Amino acid sequence: MNFDIQGNPDFGDLTITLQPGEAIWAESGAMSRMSRHLDVKTHLIGGMLKAVVRKLVGGESLFVAEYANPANSGEPMFASFAPAIPGSILHRKISPGAPFYLTAGSYLACTPGMDLHTRFGGLKAFFSGEGAFFLEAAGSGDLFFNAYGGVVEKTIEGSFVVDTGHLVAWEPSLDYSIAGMGGLKQTLFSGEGLVMKFRGQGKIYLQTRHMASLAGWLRSYL
Asked: How far is residue 90's CA from residue 24's CA, in Å, rounded to a whole number?
C-alpha cells in the first residue's frame, strides 16, 4: 500500500494506492473518488456495542467503509479521501503496545485490523466544551487523521498547556489534567475557560484553528 497526501494545510486530500489483495478502512462518507472496480463493504469495528459507543460519545460514524482491491484484479487501484472540515491530513504508524490518542472527529482512515476504542477523559472534560471522550488507536498499521487548519507538532519534555479546542492527538506517554487558566477570575474572564495541562515526555499535535471559535464568530452574523 502506498499513500499520497496533498493539499495541506488548507484542503488536505489523501489518496491510497492498493495493490491486489490490499484494503483500507475509512470514516463513513469520507471517500471523494476511487477506481470503479474496488470492492466496498461496511464494518462495525469492535462489534455493535463498541461502534455505538464510538458514535454516541466519540463523535465518529457508526460504520467504517472498507475499500478493497480484489486479489485477482491484476492491477493497482486507488481510493481518495477528504475530511469534512478544511485542514490538514496526517499519517501515523501504529505499532503493537504503542497506542495513539485522537480527539473526537479526528479519525479519517486506517489499515484493516486496527482497534479503535473510546476512552473517557474525566469528569472535568464534560465542562471543557470539547467533549468528554477521545479515541485510542491501537494495534498495528497505518493511521490517518485530520485537523482543522494547519498542524503544529510539539515535543514535550516537562509541562505544557493547551487550549482544549486546539488539541488533535497525543502520545500515551503524556499525562494530562483539565483545569482553569488560574484562579476563578482568570478562568471566567480570560476567554479561555478550561485548558489541558500535559506533563511528561512525548509528542502532541495541535490544530491552528478552532471550530467552536469559528461557530461563535459566525453566530453574530446569523
From this structure: 16
Measuring CA to CA, which residue among 135, 120, 132 is closest to residue 170? 135
Separation CA 74–CA 21 (nearest Å): 10
For residue 165, give the C-alpha cell.
Answer: 479546542
Q: What is the DSSP letter of 71?
A: T
Report pLDDT digits (tens) over 14-46: 999 999 999 999 998 899 999 999 999 987 665
pLDDT digits (tens, 9 = 90+) for 180-221: 765 544 544 445 567 888 999 999 999 999 887 888 888 888
**Domain of 84, in residue numbers:** 2-219
49 Cβ contact partners less than 8 Å away, ≥ 6 residues apart: none
CATH number at residue 127: 3.60.160.10
pTM recorded for the entire structure: 0.84
The three three-digit cell numbers of residue 80, written as one number = 481518495
